[in-house]
Design goal:
The chain has one domain: YVTN repeat-like/Quinoprotein amine dehydrogenase (Methylamine Dehydrogenase, Chain H). It has no helices and 15 strands. The strands form 4 sheets. It has a 4-stranded antiparallel beta sheet, with no helix packed on it. It has a 4-stranded antiparallel beta sheet with strand order 5-6-7-8, with no helix packed on it. It has a 4-stranded antiparallel beta sheet with strand order 9-10-11-12, with no helix packed on it. The chain is mostly beta strands and 160 residues long. The chain has strands at residues 5-12, 17-23, 29-35, 38-41, 51-57, 60-65, 68-73, 80-83, 89-94, 102-106, 109-113, 121-122, 132-137, 144-149, 153-158.
Length: 160
């Protein structure tokens, strides 16, 4: 991937492959897999979008993109849009104790999902003033979500 700017990395330990989100010098971005010394294309359905983060959760892959959140089964042929249409999403995560509880942060938005990432809901308008490059679900209490921004630091939000 010489000449590419790597944006995000994720490992699929079950399939023994690395996911790479990268952009070339012309700003053309793609998601690729790396296994056994070769790169493969995983970009179907993400054409023209910058993928800010890739995430592996069991058999599913997630992409936080410049047009929302996408999901792809690791054997699937296409990424499917699941939330945040038109929003520049920067981060996506899941709870270690309950993989169906998820959180995502973006430019002026934060979302949660309680059904494994198939439907996303805005958290609260109070948090939607900043860009969240990081999201974390507290491993000690999965109802506590932490969103990190470069403009205003970290925010704790209690999920009900």
């Amino acid at each position: 991937m010489s000449g590419y700017s790597v944006i995000s990395l994720a490992a699929d330990a079950a399939l023994g492959r690395l996911l790479v989100s990268a952009c070339d010098v012309n700003g053309i971005c793609s998601v690729r897999s790396y296994k056994n010394g070769a790169f493969g294309d995983l970009n179907q359905g993400l054409g023209g979008l910058r993928t800010n983060q890739v995430l592996v959760r069991g058999d599913d892959y997630f992409a936080a993109t410049t047009n929302g959140i996408y999901i792809r089964d690791n054997t699937g042929a296409q990424w499917i849009h699941t939330g945040g249409a038109g929003k520049n999403m920067l981060s996506v995560t899941y709870a270690t104790q309950n993989a169906c509880l998820m959180a995502a942060g973006g430019s002026g938005v934060s979302y949660t999902s309680t059904n494994c990432g198939t439907v996303w809901e805005l958290t609260t308008s109070e948090l939607n003033l900043w860009s969240f490059q990081a999201a974390l679900i507290d491993p000690a209490n999965p109802n506590r979500l932490i969103f990190g921004s470069k403009e205003a630091g970290a925010f704790l939000w209690q999920h009900e």
